[in-house]
Amino acid sequence: MTNRFRLAFMVAAAALTLAAVSFAQNQPWNNPGRALNPNQQQGDAGPAPRRDLTGIWDAGGGGIGATGYPTSALTPWGEEVSKTHKAGDGSRMVPLPEINDPLSTLGDPAGFPRLLLFELRPFQVVHTLNSVLMLYMFEKRWRVIWTDGRQLPKDPDPRWYGYSVGRWEDDYTFVIETVGMDERTWLDNSGNPHSDQMRVEERYHRVNQNSLELTVTIDDPKAYTKPWVPKNKLPLRLLPAGTDLMEMIPSASGAAAYRKAMAEPIK
Amino acid sequence: MSERVFVVLLAIAAVLVTGAPVVAHHGAASFDTEREITLKGTVTEWIWANPHCFLKFDAIDDTGTVRNWVVETQNPTDMTVRGWRRTSFKAGDQVTVTLQPVKNGAPVGRVRKVMLANGETLGTTSTPPAGAPAQPAQPPQR
Questions:
Q1: Subunit contact B78:A254, Cβ cutoff 8 A
Q2: Which residues 162-191 on chain A approach chain B with CB closer than 8 angstroms?
Q3: Kind plus residue range of the DSSP H or E element containing B37
Q4: A255 neighbors A100 (Cβ within 8 angstroms)
Q5: pLDDT tens digits for A169-190?
């Protein structure tokens, strides 16, 4: 291969990359997020601001967990529950008509932490005086992470998205603890189960102005023999402040239309 | 520049350009992933919706019978990245669809690419393939 050909090829590749980024940045409405390459820095990556996660963050393709995650060993209880989960992908994948994923077949909420482990599309972080709000593109959900020093509830009524409190471990690492999740939800797209005893830790580490890393740890002694880490320093990139995100809502009527169109003809 | 460095740079460029592959939310168990077929037909409906978009089209099979095919793509978000739009098709459009069919012979499948009557092609990789429509003057409204 000649040097001239190499140069031409690389220029073409760079041009295509820039075109893709430009495509994302120039859309005033309905930005799909993933159009922006997750590794693309937005201008100069200055130092991380102190105790601040403000902005719209995008993990790109790294946020999509289509096939689920390897877990620690299931307990006997976890094994029994997992046998009832007929997933559309991953290790418990079954043909379309047999899938019983509550999200894709019923339009149930993804729940937490599946919102992080399956479709972590762009999300916005907003700081208030006593909380941190996380506003997610997928499902158009939000979470309130209380930062006013309150303790997590004991024996709470189950919630699809649990109960969350957050604290700054240092000036650049925000740690969230969440409990009280509804057992009807799956952890991921492969149907990994959880119990009402699950505790989830999220660690958001601000690397610099434009970069964040997310680590998620699942601790559920009823379902798993030891804690496990589905997301380890997942890179997230800051999107431009004016980014208007597409809606991406998996509705019940959409789930029904999918079954009618795709699953029923092949029963 | 050594060959090794060049290969590494090319690999990085390829990742930057193509992005992540299309992911399957509903799995591949029902599809014949070893087989692709190409059909010419007439669009009857284009549904731009979550969790997946659908293209419905009539095509004549080997016996001369018209069958209405239903083929899925990924969701509007991921298809937007690939250059597809809510307005990409309308009923009556002539299309040539390359698809992965389901295993049981039903007229159901998932799209690999669609060629429009004017020769433009919409694919399922991150970067719109050569000949894909340019970005519309107006962004897609939903």
A1: no
A2: 189
A3: strand B37-47
A4: no
A5: 999 999 999 999 999 999 999 9
